[in-house]
Amino acid sequence: KGEASGSFIEKSIEAYQAALARAPTWAEGWFYLGKSKMLAGRPKEGLEDMERGVRLSPYNRDLYLYLIVHCLREADRTLLSERKREYRERARFWMGRASVLKRPFTREDYDFIGLGVEKLNQKDREKIKRLIDEDEEIKFKSPLPPFK
Q1: Which of 18, 27, 51, 66 has fewest C-beta within 10 Å?
Q2: pLDDT-based confidence at 95, cuts 50/70/90?
Q3: Could you say which DSSP state residue 119 is in?
């Protein structure tokens, strides 16, 4: 099962890379390439690709939300305190970016992803709400530091 799913993920990565070679401004493609890389155990590359997707579609609230959730999930997965802090800072940065949208996020927006199709689990909602509570005044910060 592990080898089959790993092979499937690698084929998915290759397919997205080929598609993006032809359509480099396809924001959702970058996002899904990043998600595939994260599934392949390459979180740094994956988040960088997701961030590229958000930058290509800066008004897509769903991409922001999903990126924030993935940053927080990765912060929970890693055992290194420096990495945890880095992933949380990235989530905070993207929340700040989202705060300048025409319709900024509210706490209730963090209940669903993808136009309400995929419900966030309770643990993810709690992580996001905790991050908001820690910094009620999340504002736009620039620039986003590169991964170390």
Answers
A1: 18
A2: confident
A3: E
Strand, helix or coil for residue 113: strand
Mean pLDDT of 67-74: 91
Confidence tier at 96 by pLDDT (50, 70, 90): confident
**Residues near 43 by Cβ (< 8 Å), separated by ≥ 6?**
37, 74, 77, 78
Q: What is the DSSP string of 36-98?
A: HHHHTT-HHHHHHHHHHHHHHSTT-HHHHHHHHHHHHHHHHH---HHHHHHHHHHHHHHHHHH
- 67's CB contacts (< 8 A; 6+ apart) are 31, 47, 50, 51, 53, 54, 94
